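Aggregate trends can hide what the representation actually does to any particular protein. The sequence in question and its structure tokens are set out directly beneath this paragraph.
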Amino acid sequence: MSTLIAPSLLSANFLNLEEDIEMLNRSEADWIHLDIMDGVFVPNISFGFPIIKRLKEKTDKLLDAHLMIVQPEKFIDEIAGCGVRTMNVHYEACTHLHRVVHAIKDKGMQAAVTLNPHTPVALLEDILLDVDMVLLMSVNPGFGGQRFIENTLAKVSRLKEMILRKKPSVLIQVDGGVNLETGKQLVDAGADVLVAGSFIFNSDNPVETIHRLKQL
């Protein structure tokens, strides 16, 4: 399977968002990654349901919602109603993670769990059979353009070993500091999906940048 690329809409130009969506539609991007922030779980606020709902009118790309919020389970119905394919919640934000994962799946979405950089992958041992994807943050969540945390490579390798042992169909997604160099290292370590924001949207040719990421 070739590497899946999920450009992060957080780095798009929100004064001309439709143009950036049209660029993604022309590109080889597989998904559109949606960073939803509440200013509580992370020190930033991004965008909400009105924008997500309109996205389905403008693209056929699969929507991958990453909820960086407290109590993400309160918004499962709204996320499903926006046509999102994968709902991604933080391990650190869910007291009853198993319940949240199955509530997501009951709404017809794929369920994913995110780990912050300091959270060990071993904590997923008892939930891995229930999820479709794990997102490893390779920066501290909340802002784009941060420096890649090198220890993520070892985390990807450890997680890949666990997945192959327990449920090989689970995807590994990585978000933060992804470029051609770190992206290649992540794919070699076992990553399946790369999230890239500023590296794509700030490049001179975003469509070509996405193409080059796809070749990793």
In short: The CA atoms of residues 28 and 211 lie 6 Å apart. The first strand starts at residue 4 and ends at 7. Residues 4-214 form a domain with the TIM Barrel fold (CATH 3.20.20.70).
